[in-house]
Amino acid sequence: MRAALRLLSGHPWRLAAAAALASAMVLAGVGLLSTSGYLIARAALHPDTVLALMVAVTGVRFFGLARAGVRYAERLVSHDLTLRVLAALRRRVYARLVPLAPLTLHQHRSADLLGRLIADVDELQTVVLKLVVPMLAAVLVAAVTVALVALMSLPAATVTLALFLASGLALPGLLALIERPLGRREAALHARRRVLLLDTLQGAQELWVYGRSADYRARLAELDALLGRLAARRARLEGLRDGAGTLLGLAAPWAAVVAALPQVSSGTLAPLLLVPLALGVGGAFEATAPLAEAFERWARTRAAAARIEQVLGQPPRVRDPRQPVSPPEGSGLRMSGVGFDYGGRPVLEAIDLTVAPGRRVAVVGASGSGKSTLLRLLERFADPTCGTVALGGIDLRSLRQEDVRARLGVVPQQVTLFQASVRANLAIARPGAPDDALWKALAAAALDKRVAELPNGLDTVVGEHGSQLSMGERQRLAIARALLKGAPLLLLDEPTAHLDAVTEQRVLGTLLERRNDRGVLLATHRLAGLEDVDEIVVLDGGRVAQRGTHPALADEPGPYRRFLEAERTGLDADPPRVPSA
Amino acid sequence: MPGATEARRALLARARRHPGWLVVSVVAGTLAGLVAIPQARLLTAVLNGGFLLGRDLPALSGALVWLLAAVVFRAAAIYLSTSAGHRAGERVARDLRSEVTARLLGRGPAYLEHHASGKLSAEVLEGTGRIEPYVARFLPQAALTVIVPVLVALYVLHLDPISGVILLVTGPLVPLFLWLLGTLAEQRAQRQWRALSILSAQALDALQGLETLRLFGRATDHEQAMARGGERYRRTTLDVLKVAFLSGFALELLAMLGTAMVAVTVGLRLATGELSFSVALTTLLLAPEFYLPFRQLGAHHHASMEGVAAARDLLAHLAQEAPTPAAVAPEPAAGTPGRRGPPGHPADASTGRGAAAASTRQAPAGPQNAAGLRIALRRIHARYPGADHDALRGLDLELGPAGITALVGPTGAGKSSVARLLIGTLAARSGTLLADGAPVDPTTSDRWRQRLAFVPQRPHLFEGTVLDNLRLGDPVADRNTVVEAARRAEADAFIRALPQGYDTPLGENGLDLSGGERQRLAIARAFVRDAELVILDEITAHLDTRTEGALAHAVKRLSKRSTVLVIAHRLSTVRAADRIAVLVDGVVLETGRHAELTARGGWYARLTGAAGRTTVEAS
User: Fold this and answer.
1) Any CB–CB contact under 8 A between B76 and chain A?
2) Average of per-residue pLDDT across A17-36
3) Which segment of A317-321, B287-291, B337-341 scores lowest on mean pLDDT?
4) Overall pTM surpassing 0.95 (yes/no)
5) pLDDT score for B611
6) B282 plus B377 within the same structural domain
7) Residue B342 domain-assigned (yes or no)
8) What CATH code is carried by the domain that includes residue B468?
9) Which of 473-532 (A) contact B at CB < 8 A?
10) Can you spell out the DSSP letters for B195-227?
């Protein structure tokens, strides 16, 4: 929260301008009303010349025009400021998020998390528009109005000030206080309903069989009823806000007149001034109207800020050492005795593994056996709980992260493409790479023909909303990207999961080719294409259960043979894979 | 995707269903607007008295008291108007929520299980909150904008025709200008909104792609790109807003100039003696009141756009969820004999409704069969609604008593259909289902389901602790019973190893379990339930040795007391099964044990790849 406000201080002039314009807008309205009142009052005295009135007339027209124009300007300036704050906020969030990614090892949860994070950042930026600017404007308007009234009548000024405080501070404060428990309860109930609904929808079959469907539906209905009751309370709160606000705003002219009348009677105040006083004071309370809503938002905004802090405040899993060692010559990665715990549960234990240029290693195991975790450790996204991971003989923890990753070309399990051209997506691996290097990488990934068919070839926009690439195509693009990098080590996590058998064979063949300048670590739960690799490491229950070459392992009784058998039978219910487009 | 007008119409229609609160809101709002008239008159009287007539405070006290009363009354009317509006808005939002929920739930458990609608729906439902302001604020205000200004203008017309005319001429100009500006700006705005959404999506892109950027060492580069992107976003948004705010400007200008015009003409005529002070002042006080509803409507415009957008999403979703002929098995159709209650609301054990209304073709009540059910499926034909061919075509199958029957077959053979038939989400068109010799209709019989347990491929983890999840089938089972059942299911040790053991929270906000772990839990559920028939759909993924072993042991133990039907995907499972049934195109073609079926060299042999290969030694 403080961060957002601090961001505002980066634009003091704009903020001042926004506040000034906002108050000018209200004051123009006050001006319009009081000048009109003065005009009428003066006219009622039947002056000899119309000239006396002309000033007032001009004033009225001026204030009328000014108000509309100032309002337009204020809206633009406020929104401009808000957008700047938003951009700065996003940059800050991004910068703090970088060392934390990948946040969790469960992809589906992290997508959800990001969505909420973005929503919370958006919530935070509205603090400018809805809270800070109105508050400053209200203070300015109150100050000016009270000062002007004071020139006419001190008692009236006192009353006006009191009502300003009531309408701008006391009422919003009171409302916010009442709202807080209500808002919290509403949020909690909505969260419960959401979870309950998900359970009812996703667990429908089991609920049906176990006879609990009616039970869950009843609970949903119960929650709805509770929410309905809360809604009634909220409706009354909103009504109170509008009603009390109106009351104070309309009572102001009344109170000002009551306070000023004795002075008129005693002759210390010109009777003429009663009229502009009454009209003008009423107009000033337009400034305090948005404050009640603003205070209410305050609670929501603080909650959003707290949630953001919770995510960003986590300590990064890995840090660069204070005095990093310069990167080693060799590019061999070795895991020795590595163990890793996650969420209080052991995921890997006593892992020994080596991959170096010229060697091709496959890590095989059931889903959830820790293969992806293993890769994360090699990529230095996490440090092992025990044991060491070394590059060229140097512990990763003594090296800079970017030096380590510079040696790695990675195809992760979840492919992320950016909403940009194919070229841009590839260029991430090697910026400025010439087109024929790009085509070469695409060819190795069996994607060159497909890209050539695309409407704009390499310049076609892909990603979420771009031209729709199939899962298999996205995966091959990620493979091409990794190959383009030309790094000495390739780390592949289920790279061919979405490819049909023929394409898989071709791509794997290219990836697993023996090359002196390149080492490959392939994590997979499918055994196709592993006949030739130098070593297969079989993970079972987080430990290395077997290691060896394919022919050796196929002969031993063990998990490897079990996997082999499973793959050879047709009992697997996966639908036949359609050849990728 | 329905258009904005369609969405507005739909919202209006739903608001009309419960018009009460909306009417209250409009009536109260009208009263508040009309009170402006006596309020203006009273203030005029006070000011006239104090200014021109030289009256003092006590003399004016009567008028002042009435003025204060008018003010209080007006505030109270606004309180009522606003709270009634919000009640109406909340009602509409709640109705829409129920509608979407009911539509989803009505599609039946089998459909819901395999449809990704769950998460999406939850999100769409959260969007109903944004509809509220449209009904709560915008709709009543729209009505008031038609009613109040007319009444105020008529009064002013009666007081001072010239001012009245000014108001009545400028008033309609407001919507006219707004419409003009709106249509002129529309296209430009559309183009820019699209650019905007691309830019904002790119921001999301960057956050989601952080891991990739780090892997390729591009994270810091991207920060600069972000800065540039942010700048572009700001400029593009402002361009859009410059046009969007013009309508607000026009509205404000008209209102201000209208008031100014009234003030000036009134003032000048007052100076020449044509008008009295009272009339002049009252007219001046009422001019802003005339424009106020227009300006308030403008203020709610943004909320209304959001509401319409949310409504469009919701309506699109409802349209998607509309029952189509190609739907997967829904809740049992109304036509099934012996069924009571509307479709989509199956009779359930807890309601007791079904038990009473269940057809006479029920499984016999009484103590559970110690040796597990003997099930016979004879010449079963079953078809999914809207399908053009049968899923099961004269299926004959025997299960139990006790023991494991493995069901195998190529994809699409109908294995899941057999499961659905047994649990009652697919109705048989013909044929009989006998349990221990007595006919049963799983689609209607609660009693039947009480004897069942079902382990899907990916069991759902419900919100609650491990203990709560295990008790799904028997919510009142005590802890010891549950722990004992878990032990028999070989799940006890694994559960105790979890961070909080049996009290570990699971579900959306709790621990996530892998596929194998979920199935171990679900099998433990079956033990807690002490079911007589257990249907298990095996996971296709590889499992680590320990999990695989534990699952196999648990199922074996289960099969000692219960009849177990496994939709098998593992060689080890079929090898250990007491009986294997090969299902092809909705019919059982072969039954027997592993060795004999392999030797036969038919479907089974082909499926297991055993044909033409030497047998592999048991692992």
Assistant:
1) yes
2) 95
3) B337-341
4) no
5) 44
6) no
7) no
8) 3.40.50.300
9) 481, 485, 525
10) HHHHHHHHHHHHHHTHHHHHHTT-HHHHHHHHH
- Whether residues B431 and B301 share a domain: the answer is no
- Among A295-304, B70-79, B568-577, top mean pLDDT goes to B70-79
Number of domains in chain B: 2
Residues B213 and B264 in one domain: yes
**B245 reaches A (C-beta below 8 A):** yes
Name the DSSP class of A29.
Answer: H
What is the mean pLDDT of the segment spanning B354-359? 32
Q: With contacts defined as CB-CB under 8 Å, which chain A residues touch B104?
A: 201
Domain contains B617: no
- B393 and B537: one domain? yes
> Whole-angstrom distance between the N-terminal and C-terminal Cα of chain A?
49
Give the number of C-alpha atoms closer than 13 A to the C-alpha of residue A407, restricted to the C-beta side. Answer: 27
A239–B80 CB contact, under 8 Å: yes
ipTM: 0.83
The burial of A452, by beta-carbon neighbours within 10 Å (0-12 exposed, 13-18 middle, 19 or more buried), is given as exposed
- Decide if B340 is inside a domain: no
CB distance from A536 to chain B under 8 Å? no
**Residue B420 structural domain:** 355-609
> If you count residue pairs, one on A and one on B, with CB atoms under 8 Å apart, how many are there?
467
User: Is residue A455's pLDDT more than 50?
Assistant: yes
For residues A43 and A65, give the distance between their C-alpha atoms in angstroms, rounded to a whole number: 22
Structural domain includes residue B328: no
Domain end residue (candidates: B319, B343, B369): B319
* B564, B454: one domain: yes
Q: Name residue B132's amino acid.
A: E
Chain B residues in contact with A71 (beta carbon < 8 A) = 248-249, 252
pLDDT in tens, A97-146: 888 877 554 444 555 677 777 778 888 877 767 888 999 999 999 999 99
Between B119, B472, B516, which is nearest A212 by CB? B472
- Interface residue B458 vs chain A (CB under 8 A): no
Task: Quote the pLDDT of residue B161.
Answer: 94
**What pLDDT, on the 0 to 100 scale, is given for residue B329?**
38
- B415 in helix, strand or coil? helix
More confident residue, A407 or B229: A407
Sheet holding B428-435, edge to edge: B392-399, B375-382, B428-435, B438-439
Please write the tens of the pLDDT for every residue from B361-385: 333 333 445 677 899 999 999 998 7
Q: What is the mean pLDDT of residues A285-293?
A: 90
Q: In chain B, how many H helices and how many E strands?
A: 23, 12
Q: Residue B251 sits in a domain of what CATH number?
A: 1.20.1560.10
Question: Is A31 at the interface with chain B, CB within 8 A?
Answer: no
Chain B residues with CB under 8 Å of A232 CB are 87, 90
| Dihedral Cα B258, B264, B269, B270, nearest 10 deg | 110
Q: Hey, is the C-beta of B39 within 8 angstroms of any chain A C-beta?
A: yes
Give the Å distances, CA to CA, from A508 to A354, A504, B289, B439. 20, 6, 76, 55
Both B284 and B428 in one domain: the answer is: no
pLDDT of residue B411: 81
Average pLDDT over residues A380-395: 93
